[in-house]
Batch of 4 targets.
Target 1
Amino acid sequence: MGMLGFMYRQKTAHPAPVPFHDLSGQTVLVTGANVGIGMEATRQLMGFKVARVIMAVRTPAKGEEAKAQLLKTNPTCDVQVWPLDMDSFDSVIAFGQRAQQLDRLDLVLLNAGLKKQAFEQNNATGHETTIQVNHLATSLLSLLLLPPLRQTAAKYRKPSRMTLTASEVHMWATFKEKSAPNIIKEMDDKTTWAYPERYNLSKLLNVLWARELASKVSKDQVIINTVNPGLVKSSLHRENTNAAEQKFTAFFGWTPEEGGRTLVNASVAQGPGTHGRYMSECKPTAESPFVRSPEGSQIQKKLWNQTIETLQEDTHTTLTGYV
Ligand SMILES: NC(=O)c1ccc[n+]([C@@H]2O[C@H](COP(=O)([O-])OP(=O)(O)OC[C@H]3O[C@@H](n4cnc5c(N)ncnc54)[C@H](OP(=O)(O)O)[C@@H]3O)[C@@H](O)[C@H]2O)c1
């Protein structure tokens, strides 16, 4: 999709509120729930009568502040703030193990993400920060949360849901690293980093990962999809000091409430036909030509294998039993 089409749709395709769905008794888990699109999606899900919300947040104080705001409109919901620092695999694993103890987990929004303006390397893992958070930690979580999602599906005889927040910008990634012997190691190298390519690429990796994950998980157990929330005025752009880009976002950006609607649509209003699909403007939409090409399918598998290998090496855990 070209830039003109993108600008046109930002101005004309504002997502509508998702009609009421009764989610009574259900537990939902949202990463990056303290602000922006994640917080607004959480608010909308609470309006659907969910029993319990787990807000996965990097800074618990920010989570508590957001929780207080959210409870103003839905005071009876059991809202729990759980710490999750996606810069740390130990934190991701502790979070996943805690979630595996839940008696019920119906819906997961893997939404947390960041957009760096410069190369930054994670001290603990050695990975470039965008890839660490947006791809590696998100992918690890997607595996760790499968057991409670599947158990819930079996118990209530209906599929659970997992939606990853991707982006239309996945179509703009050039992905030069795809031919490297090891894609993840290549992206750790500072010389490969570029703005906004690295962020765009991280969103392409979300799309590829979710497609491969969905191919390994039955849609009768967990419906897995990705969503483009549109360009949204949020703190994702907090580091951006480019005046032209700031003006562009201010003019074309949707509100976080509108962005939140796209997540709720993808995870609540859409059916099993969206398993493995990419959602944009609240409907299944063609992914980039690269994703749909034979080369894309081959790289999707390579990325899957190298991501699993990296995560296993870095966390000293075995991930083969999850899919
Ligand atoms: N806004 C857009 O235009 C746009 C467009 C397409 C896709 N998206 C995607 O939408 C998702 C939500 O973004 P947003 O626009 O709502 O941005 P946002 O307001 O900045 O929210 C991002 C959330 O991710 C959390 N997060 C970042 N790094 C983390 C880490 N290391 N560990 C745990 N949590 C972390 C943030 O926590 P803190 O508050 O503590 O930093 C925050 O809660 C992201 O995946 C983004 O890529 C956004």
Target 2
Amino acid sequence: MERLHAFLLLGLCLLKSLLAPLLGARRGLGDFERSYAPDRLPPLTPHERRALPTLSGCIACGLCDLGEGLRAGRSSGVYDGPMDLMLASSRSMPDFDAAARSFAAVSDERLAELELRCPARVPMREVAAFVRAKSAELPSPSRRRMG
Ligand code: SF4
């Protein structure tokens, strides 16, 4: 019975979303922004949507962290090496303003060098550019939705 109920519900939702454009009830970008801006989730551009799967290929091998200890030490805790940037900091868009500060500790020239030793071919400069771009679109943390 529960399964039947689930199928009916899914069917109803499918029908509703298929008919929405015909009935003028389709929710658009404006609705998305109104719904998700308080959660600090800006919409992706079509280019960003296509690029996203290529940005998350880090396999945590740690090779890019080699030789980055001095830079990390000088960063007063802002930068913990490129692996952290590729594997963690660049995964949560609401926190991209903090991630952008971490990326500022390492230049694109250095990221280009590190890309050459990455076995997963993570496009580190593209990840950095994505984080910077989305960070610039974030509302201030004071507007963050609570609860
Ligand atoms: S070298 Fe590449 S795969 Fe290895 S930790 Fe760095 S980004 Fe990840």
Target 3
Amino acid sequence: MLRGLAKRMSPGMSRFRLFSAHWRPVLRRQPHGVTDVALTFDDGPSPVTTVAVLEMLARANAKATFFLTGTRVLAYPELVRAIIDEGHAVYGHGWEHVHLEEAGPAAALEAMQRVEGLLAQFRPTPSLYLIRLPYNDGFRRAWMHEAMARFHPNACFAWWTISTQDYRLADGCATLEQLEARCKALGERMRQIRHLPGSIVLLHEDPFGAPGALAPRVSELMLPHVLSAIAARGAKCGLVQPEASAMRNRWFFAPLRGDQMI
Ligand SMILES: [Zn+2]
């Protein structure tokens, strides 16, 4: 009876559902004892950023995790191939860059199936699937956890420890010099974060809807400062490592604390 009732509830009402057999883990940082910083790039691939980003990561001997948008995967398959050939991890970031909480569970499931259908042509579907939807939608919603559990039996939401807010960095910037100064300051702030080692860091490639004409240039200007900050703290950049104990815990509640914005 409860299941029937749940099915009749709209997505908007389902925020009140606390119990579900399908809560998936929500990762906020690397497992205890892992000091590698997990750089994560949303919204790519992009002809403006991806090649430069890959070159900088290679020079720093860094591995990163890319959450790719379906329409851009379709448009730039050679960039997807380049990311994978460099040993980075790729997952879907929806099909179009839209709010899937508003679209509902069927649309969210379809968006992820569609993007992964393309990505699976480049590499085998991972046995554990990191989920990050556009605008980080859905990880507090039981119905989205259920939809993602249907998408992949080992789905796991990848939130983050630190948001660089890089999508705001070019707002009001008139020149590349101004933007460069902001990127440098961000790197300095990042270097001061006590829990930087072992963190998951949110970055973007050519972010959708970012204000400022120079927004697509942020990745290439900011990444050197991010890599320097991590190196200065004696840490390396590695892939997101889901914790085995978290994956066994099906009754998982999304953490209530927010992320750190820098
Ligand atoms: Zn995004």
Target 4
Amino acid sequence: MTLQSPSTDLTSFEGKVAVVTGGSRGIGKAVCDELIRRGAKVVIGAISDKGREVAKQYNKEAGKKVAVFLRTDVSRYDDNKALFQLAENEFGGVDIAILNAATCDNADNLFSPLDDKLEERIFNVNAVGLIKSSKVAILHMAKRGGGSIVCTSSAAGFYSVPALIAYVATKHAVIGYVKSCTFLPEVCNVRVNAVCPSFADTTFMDNVKTIDGAPEPFYDFVDTVPTVPMSVIIDGVFKYLCDNTANGKTVMAYPTGIEVIEAPEWHYSLLTDDSLKAQDIYLKKAIPHSKQQLSRALERYEKEQKERPI
Ligand SMILES: NC(=O)c1ccc[n+]([C@@H]2O[C@H](COP(=O)([O-])OP(=O)(O)OC[C@H]3O[C@@H](n4cnc5c(N)ncnc54)[C@H](O)[C@@H]3O)[C@@H](O)[C@H]2O)c1
């Protein structure tokens, strides 16, 4: 089945369909506001039911259905599939995915209790959940002829924050994932990029606490650091949504504005004459190979949708 996209050119957002995880408040909600302002339709997936009210308000203001909400836990494939299928059922397909849902709870330090749940939950939402959302997003976008994914990582995806070790590791993981999407534009016309805000003025860190309740000196420091205006984060998101050439890129959002962070090139010691020749052959094979795998993945997904509709 092929769903026709009006266009994958995202210089205009009128009529485009965007799935936004974590769109019920904070940064995700600000991105939804801007998408709606530019004429897009939004499908909000979040763990908190507050997103229902947000969607209702957009519809009320527009005088027609421009938004829907589904309670979603991004750590579960079934929830992600239901969210993207809702976008297809309500608005005909998916052009944009803003993968923004994350938690900072259990972001504790090196000396927290040796409890499996502590690190597992934060990884399952912030890193594994984002990968699950994007794998589902890519299938829906591939069917439509292309799309653009922007992931919310963090300045913590590059910096050291000893008070938030597990959180920091999840945000580094997001950067690694985004960089690994190298061939996607050639395979299915989908682009994946990341925005990395520094501290923003949201309630994100309100629930972070040390397990034993002892005060964490880091938070006294955080209170002194200037926050990044929401408008700068929105600039970063729309920079990548609109730039048809950007893929696997990361942009920092600082209080002073956005700054692109370039990944290092492969080190010269890894690139011998032999490995360069082999790399050429690999690059020629990689795209047809990935196209074949995508086609099998789409068949599997469509069969599953027919046999076990969500
Ligand atoms: N606030 C900051 O200082 C800051 C800085 C850098 C990066 N970020 C990143 O920005 C993104 C948004 O954060 P925010 O500041 O708007 O926080 P927020 O707490 O206001 O919003 C988080 C959103 O994620 C949703 N969410 C949480 N767990 C979920 C799950 N399992 N499944 C689905 N949805 C889930 C929540 O319902 C909410 O809508 C996050 O990825 C965060 O890591 C925030």
